[in-house]
Amino acid sequence: MKENKKTYWKGLEQLTNDPAFVKNADREFPENLPLHKNGDGGSNRRDFLKMMGFSLAAASLAACEAPVRKAIPYVNKPVDVDPSVPNYYATTYASGGDYASIVVKTREGRPIKIDGNDFSPITGSATNSIIEASVLSLYDKQRLTGPHINGEKVDWAALDADLGAKLRSAGSIKIVTNTLLSPSTDKAIEAFSEAMGDVEVITYDPLSNFGILKASEQYYGKKVLPSYHFDKAKTIVSFGADFLGTWISPIEYARQYSQGRKISKESPEMSRHFQFESNLSLTGANADYRTPIRPSQSGLAVLALYNLLARRGGASTVNAPAIDIANLERAAEELWANRGQSLVVSGSNDPNVQVVIHAINELLGNKGETIDFAKAAHFRKGDDERMIQFVSDLNAGRIGAVIFYNCNPCYDYAGAEELTAGIGKAKVSVATTESRNETCNAVQYLAPDHHYLESWNDYNPKPGEYSLAQPTITPLFDTRQVQESLLRWAGNNTSYYNFIKQNWREGYFTEQDQVSDFDMFWDGCLHNGIYRVEAEVEEVPEAFGDISAAAQAIGRAYSADNQGVELALYTKIGIGSGAQANNPWLQEMPDPISKATWDNYLTVSQKWANDNGLKMQEGGTKKARLTVNGLSIDVPVLVQPGQADGTIGLALGYGRTVAGRVANEVGVNAYPLLDHSKGFVNYDITEGVSVELLSENYRIAQTQTHQTYMGRNFVIQESTLGEYKEDPNAGRYHPEIYKEGKFYKPSKISLWSGHKYSQHHWGLAIDLNSCTGCSACTVACQVENNVAVVGRDEVLNRREMAWIRIDRYYSSPEGATENKELEKAADNPEVTFQPMMCQHCNNAPCETVCPVVATTHSSEGLNQMTYNRCIGTRYCANNCPYKVRRFNWFKYHDNKDFPMNTPQNDDLGKMVLNPDVTVRVRGVMEKCSMCVQRIQAGKLTAKKERRKLQDGEINVACAVACPTEALVFGDMNDPHSKVSNLLKIKENDISANKEVNEERAYHVLEEINVSPNVWYFTKIRNKDKNEA
Amino acid sequence: MQVTSPVREPLVTGGKTYKDVTNDVSRQVEGKPSVAWLIGLAISVGALLLGFLALAATLWEGIGMWGLNKTVGWAWDITNFVWWVGIGHAGTLISAVLLLFRQKWRTSINRAAEAMTIFAVICAAMFPVIHMGRPWVGAYWALPLPNTFGSLWVNFNSPLLWDVFAISTYFAVSLVFWYIGLIPDFATIRDRATGIRKTIYGALSFGWDGATRTWMRYESVSLILAGLATPLVLSVHTIVSFDFATSVIPGWHTTIFPPYFVAGAIFSGFAMVLTLMIVTRKVFNLQDYITIGHIELMNIVIIITGSIVGIAYITEFFIAWYSGVAAEQYAFVNRMFGPYWWAYWSMMTCNVISPQLFWFKKIRTSIVATFVLSLVVNIGMWFERFVIIVTSLHRDFLPSSWVMFYPTIYDVGVYLFTFGLFFTCFLLFAKFFPVINMAEVKAVLKSSSEKVTK
């Protein structure tokens, strides 16, 4: 065809070369199509206008809309709800004093994932397993669906009419609660008490830290729980405080702690951590020096440390029975050397011990440095003495009405039995929890609260630190916020939303001068989820200084040579106090230490097991009869290396009877074993304990049954700080392969020509030094990727589906070389945690063996799984050297044989599924995809915005959840990405086998040259010499 | 072709004539089923049905019915597969390799051995299909079929795909070879039969006319098929061994596997032939055709292949030690002294020590001893595959994933199903097909200078 040289103008603009026209001349549509506009470039959560729209809608809809049971298509699309586009809302998780500021991802109006809130100075972008899993409890079909009177379902009007009058005439009203962090709730209770007259709030915590509060009162004259700064401490000494796992505010502490544990060639310094404890806790597993002690010795150990330090400081020592505790002397020495940069904590709930701990930190000058009273924490307000008094008042019939405010003391209070018996003696009893629990069964009225993701609230975790909670979904059931109920009963008909807003308008808004318009101020706070008043601090108390009374009490209560068995009750990081036990994700999360799921058990020392002829194989064990002061329970035994001789441990939070089908009858209830006879809840039972091994066999569902890494330095590479300072290669294993007269690095010899990644090359760097083993990542992955729950029996069959697992290895006894010795764990082992997921090998053994090319390599270095194509030969899983592939042995979804898999078998539970991730069918293989759905979404966003991807824009679920930033994900082709910098990858290296110049970085199983895209950093312990 | 010698021992004893051969063999086909046969069939069909329950449950509920887990992805399924394939080696070896080597004693056992091969391969081929998570698609997705899925194709890198080709080729050639051999005998039966049986056997014999030209073609086809089948005898188990040898798993990743697997296959195949033939000759009264001489010769093959297998076991150990690779060394130490030590030592006893008893002439010419040892060898060979598959997988590289494998009743049931299938097929074969190749046996009757006609 002849070329047409004529020019046709589209209009005058083209003729005149109007710049506005030229800019869009090449585009098919000069203006963007009216699709979803996301032009501001930031993530949605920063887009507070949306939030405002939703807030208003939610607030008004919450009151008038009937719950929608069936999915129906939109006739008029709601503003901000775009199919397949997630919205993020900042809110707050708070339960029994556990606190985190979070961001909730919603899809089509359904909350499906919880991440940490970057803006929060306390918990930041981190979460923990319980918070990650809590989104599922929203969709728990076993929640209460409306108010009840004496077991009869009624409507709110009926309940209000009946209860309001009764409360008014009840006389003395007690509101029993766990720690409340909410200023507006306090106000609502105030309003309630003004209307009712005699109202008192009784606070108790299932995991009580009353000891510290009481000690502060004794020692400083002020009932206060300080904030700790583990990041500023060079020497950390903990007496049984599991601060990385379950003690007070573990997310916050783990974040701080990890900062002191990250090392590099440039700054090869890290904190040194001493732990003295009975059970092997997560924190103890991370300690550099861990000494197993009996609970009966713990008080004396603290005293001995005080005396050691007092001698150095020239202060007067106190009388204390002599006790010999390994590493205590050295701890004292290093504490003293790092005065003002050290921290001593204790997990004991004994106020006397905590007084001495206060004194020790005072001696060390840590107050104001690593211990902060100015920004004291509000996380635990539980008053054990007051609670004991309340229960006796209740039983004496001195209480007219009792309202159990979102708590479950009939299960998780030490004197639950006595309390349950007394409830009937109150004229009126009310429980407000969102789901039926043990306490609900003992009361007359149920006024169920919203789930926290349906609620408005505000929180004040520390002075000057505020955060807001906003609903992320319309309430699913006929529930009502407790605060609103209280207001209603008090005759105030305001909604709690307006109530909070009013509080903020009158309070924080007027106290600031940054924003002049309240709505702007409110929307800003809602958007950010937090609000800070830097100036707000509390007065730092002065110490009284006298600890002789406490020392004397300790001398009487503790002994250096108790011969009897001692029981240390603890909590597991997944189950905690048991309040969220009805969550299958948490039940199936392996305990980081024991690797056990779906059970609690008696942890016994290896010596005890040998003495009693107990040997565990594949989780197979026996039950034992535990008798504590006349109370007997039969409980399976788990042999726990590191358990102090003569002690046993048992986790609280199990043995629920009224929780739902997931948690009921799982494990045994250990709360009745707690001792509260001394005015505080004592978790260490040192007298009247006996254990008798029964002949009854039992199998504990453990996901890992082999304890040690068999001295395999191609799996775990570790060293000590001293060696690392001398040689950054310390602990590294460099395999070499002999070929034609020379030795080569394995990566230099390959049958494959190798991939080239011209665009991105995704990689993951995992620091074994930072990983505390907390397992938040495993639950985050399960939520993000719709990983099935398989239940206890299938875990016993070794078929858990986790895409990411934390391998936990104990060290073998010193000097072990033979296989049989290497298989055994040392009595007080060193512990290494190794997160293990698909290594996305560049020379992937799985890819070559699949007969139908169902698993392939992407152009960005990912090992991909095509479920549709998979025929399930399992050859790939067999040939995977890391054993990370998981097979769908059964149909796990829509199958009544797997009732525990509520996220996939329950019509409501399914709401939690991530619509971006396929639910796998029976008979196909699955594994970590490196959150490919997030990668694709991130790339798409960047593409739509016509820009390059920014480092950090895409992140995998495990890395997001990690409180210690042990996992770093990114593009290894981007020389400026965090992961490239960590690995020290040269610029313009786009080969699959990247030259990594960081000395600590290694590949697991380097010698087989599968060339993973996941790198591990050697574990460095701050020890003088290598003891493993 | 036939060389006669006055000194050579006759291959067929009892002074059988051509007519005797026809009568002795055809009698089984023509007569009423014996009580022993009926009992045997009842038991086999019973096993088949019982096993089918386990198979049906597996297909209905999923592979989870078996004892497999996250670490041990194959156990009884692939053990059984390799075991049956191994057994399926003897038939073709006897009929093809021994034909090429002009071993005339093969003639009285090759028919049954080939039938056994066919049935064993059917049993074996079942496992790769039913062990799949999704056999309903896997059964044909594993084939390079043109499809509408775009560019989706099979993975020619995968040893499992090589298996598909190896097994299907082997099965096809074996089946043709077996059937060609059956044609003259079907014709013999046709000629003696009346009524519907005449029609059926007439159809089966493809109009065989017994002309010289037909016989010549028969001989050529046999030779050509023997030539084709011989490399297959070696290739099938070589390729099956690649499933393991090409992997990275310690204990699998060894270059010795091909010859070792082939020797093991012949070893187990001969043992199975002996097991079956000892029973058949007794029940069908064929002692004159399958003589002690046959049994002894097969026992000698068992000594040789058993010894090769034994040397292979020892070589593996040496190489593991010599390699200096810790994981490899551990895999082998774990076989001997780990939690599955009993499987390893069962294998060693059954496969390496017990066949050595055949060095004693008294034992290798004893029917009872041979029968017992042939069973022992097959037990041992099952354990060999179990040891290779399960003990290598259950403790590989990362100790965190080390597990134990415990079979379930469904593992056992599916194995039982294949036994039921195998023996049902074999019994039906024994009843309705001539179990001895009449035509070829007639050809070797004259190995001595005796008269064979009356």
Topology:
The complex is a heterodimer of chains A (1028) and B (454).
Chain A: H1 12-15, H2 19-24, H3 48-64, E1 87-95, E2 98-107, E3 110-116, H4 129-138, E4 148-149, E5 152-153, H5 156-168, E6 173-177, H6 183-196, E7 199-203, H7 210-220, E8 225-228, E9 235-239, H8 250-259, E10 272-277, H9 282-286, E11 289-292, H10 295-313, H11 328-337, E12 342-346, H12 351-363, E13 371-377, H13 384-395, E14 401-405, H14 409-412, H15 416-423, E15 428-431, E16 445-446, E17 457-462, E18 465-469, H16 482-489, H17 496-506, H18 518-528, E19 530-532, H19 548-557, E20 566-570, H20 584-588, E21 596-597, E22 602-604, H21 606-611, E23 620-628, E24 631-639, E25 647-651, E26 684-685, E27 689-699, E28 701-702, E29 718-720, H22 721-726, E30 737-739, E31 742-744, E32 762-767, H23 776-784, H24 792-796, E33 805-810, H25 819-822, E34 831-836, H26 845-849, E35 855-857, E36 863-865, H27 875-878, E37 886-887, H28 902-905, E38 925-926, H29 932-944, H30 957-961, E39 967-971, H31 978-983, E40 1001-1002, E41 1014-1017, E42 1019-1021
Parallel strand pairs in A: 6-7, 6-14, 9-10, 9-12, 10-11, 14-15, 15-16, 20-25, 22-24, 29-42, 32-41
Antiparallel strand pairs in A: 1-2, 2-3, 4-5, 4-16, 8-13, 17-18, 18-19, 20-26, 21-28, 22-25, 23-24, 23-27, 30-31, 32-39, 33-34, 35-36, 37-38, 40-41
Helix pairs in contact in A: 3-18, 4-23, 6-16, 6-17, 7-12, 10-11, 10-12, 10-19, 12-19, 13-15
Chain B: H1 18-30, H2 35-61, H3 76-87, H4 89-100, H5 110-130, H6 135-141, H7 159-192, H8 195-204, H9 212-245, H10 257-283, H11 292-323, H12 326-337, H13 341-353, H14 361-364, H15 367-394, H16 409-432, H17 438-444
